[in-house]
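Deliverable D5.2: sample structural annotation.
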Amino acid sequence: MTLAVITSLVSCISYVGLMVLVSRAGLKDRVRWLFSFYVLDMLLLQAAYLMVSLASSEETALFWYTLTIPLPLGQMIIYFFFTRAFLEIESPRKLMQGSAIIWFLTVIVCVVFRSSVMPNIYRDSSTGLFVPEFGGLAIVLMLPVLMYLGATVFELIRGYRSRLHLQQLRIQYLLLAILVIWLGMFANGSTALRPYPIDVMANIASAILIAFAILR
């Protein structure tokens, strides 16, 4: 069993544990419901990584890698709306509908133009894992992720300045979670670090920080 398989299995177990923990505390408000969807998105992402780790051919690995682009976008969209709910900011229906359209368009582009998103895939000699090379279209698809990430940071900083001390401490955990997500994205974008499950561990850490902010 390879390191990638072990890490993905541990990640899936961790996300299931987080969902159980939050569910037992009670899904009594929108904040916890959105966090549950966030964890579900991450669970699906780790399942895709697990299938990549178990893939025996380039075609199979490429199919599962295709899912690893819209799922991180879904992660950031959910986190954005989670943050607004956490800060008690009402989200307009048009904003939610526009976000859904952006996500569906990303899925369509990934499927139709997959060869432009990931033009090549190879087996890493040190880990034995299939690793994709991203094309220029993948960079374009990252723009919505960065947009929602930046909007989330903006909302959190603005909310931090207008909250009492206890609430500020909880917001600090959410900001720290974004920093961890950034580190994971950087590792996934680096050719040298991409074969290693750094982004997976970063996502686990970020989810734990968010759960701590909710349940604190």
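Annotation notes: The two ends are 37 Å apart (CA to CA). The beta strands are 120-123, 130-133.
The annotation will be released with the project's public dataset once the embargo ends.
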